[in-house]
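Customer escalation, tier 2.

The customer says the design service returned an amino acid string that "doesn't look like it belongs to this structure." They asked us to rerun it and document both sides in this ticket. The original structure tokens are below, unchanged.
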């Protein structure tokens, strides 16, 4: 039996189905009136799904490098050649790379067509596939070009997670760890389906309150400022969730130095990361000064270096964090 979590966005709201085997619901969630579907996926994904309507499979490259404007152009040109119209739809079957690409292609093809995400990774199921943030990378940083474009439905089939390589699953756990500090509590004590659904509920509530990241939605970036800098500086050597885990440890150290949290709360950060066997420290070879410089490129950095930090009132955005504090916290995780 699946767990259905609604994302409440008035007429643009949609269901997120969580559970074993929910991929079989795909024909039921194809947008009404869509006669053709472009199925965007990757060669290494071992799932062939039938959307129940005429469809064409578009295979995109593997890896984070696939999230590029070049690949989006290739998708759109392929759809144009095949005669897809504004009435048709896109289905993304894969992890965060695929659903980001599929969603962005849907946002820009014919100025917007409908799409469905079938998320095959833990990271995608608890984060990337939900909320309508789509986009691609530039050489200068992650997700710098994109659009807010909500799906018609999301399928989070937990059976699919059994096929993930251990490191890919662990990457998703890095995003799960974030939700412990966004109101999730001791998520590590829940069964997998319930844990995924709990994360989806938190994200759905935040997205419903702040769809376009004008304020509260920024809390979903907890741990991500350092994570994105690590990924940019390191050429994506770390998986995203692993970088987020390091970013969570770092955000805790920054909050501790600002007096926002105490040692007990910092210990809870370490406990959660240890419970999931996630990294706590910077990978060797990274230059802390370069990372600090990269913070200025973060999308949240409008009025100085901006961080999402824990505190007595919960996780919130803090503007103008002093570079000396950031440098000191960096030393603590080296």
């Amino acid at each position: 039996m699946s767990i259905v979590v609604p994302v409440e966005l008035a007429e643009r709201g949609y269901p997120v189905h969580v559970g074993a085997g929910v991929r079989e619901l795909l024909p039921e969630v194809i947008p009404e009136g869509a006669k053709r579907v472009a199925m965007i996926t990757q060669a290494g994904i071992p799932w062939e799904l039938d959307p129940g309507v005429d469809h064409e499979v578009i295979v995109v490259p593997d890896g984070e490098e696939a999230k590029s404007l070049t690949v989006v152009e290739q998708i759109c040109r392929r759809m144009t050649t095949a005669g897809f119209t504004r009435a048709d739809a896109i289905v993304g079957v894969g992890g965060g790379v695929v659903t980001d690409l599929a969603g962005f292609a849907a946002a820009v093809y014919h100025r917007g067509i409908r799409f469905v995400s079938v998320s095959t990774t833990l990271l995608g199921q608890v984060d990337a596939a939900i909320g309508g943030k789509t986009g691609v990378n530039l050489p200068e940083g992650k997700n710098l070009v994109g659009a807010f474009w909500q799906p018609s439905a999301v399928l989070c089939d937990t059976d699919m997670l059994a096929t993930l390589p251990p490191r890919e699953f662990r990457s998703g756990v890095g995003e799960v760890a974030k939700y412990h500090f966004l109101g999730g509590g001791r998520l590590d004590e829940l069964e997998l389906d319930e844990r995924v659904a709990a994360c989806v509920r938190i994200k759905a509530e935040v997205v419903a309150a702040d769809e376009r990241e004008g304020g509260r939605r920024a809390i979903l970036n907890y741990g991500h400022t350092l994570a994105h800098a690590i990924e940019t500086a390191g050429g994506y050597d770390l998986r995203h969730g692993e970088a987020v885990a390091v970013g969570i440890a770092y955000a805790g150290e920054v909050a501790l130095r600002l007096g926002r949290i105490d040692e007990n709360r910092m210990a809870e950060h370490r406990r959660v990361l240890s419970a999931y066997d996630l990294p706590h420290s910077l990978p060797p070879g990274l230059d802390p000064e370069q990372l600090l410089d990269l913070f200025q490129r973060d999308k949240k950095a409008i009025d100085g270096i901006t961080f999402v930090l824990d505190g007595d009132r919960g996780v919130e955005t803090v503007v103008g964090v002093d570079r000396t504090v950031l440098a000191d916290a960096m030393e603590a995780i080296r």
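Tier 2 assessment: The sequence is consistent with the input. The two ends are 45 Å apart (CA to CA). Residues 17 and 241 are 22 Å apart (CA to CA). Sent an explanation to the customer and offered a walkthrough call.
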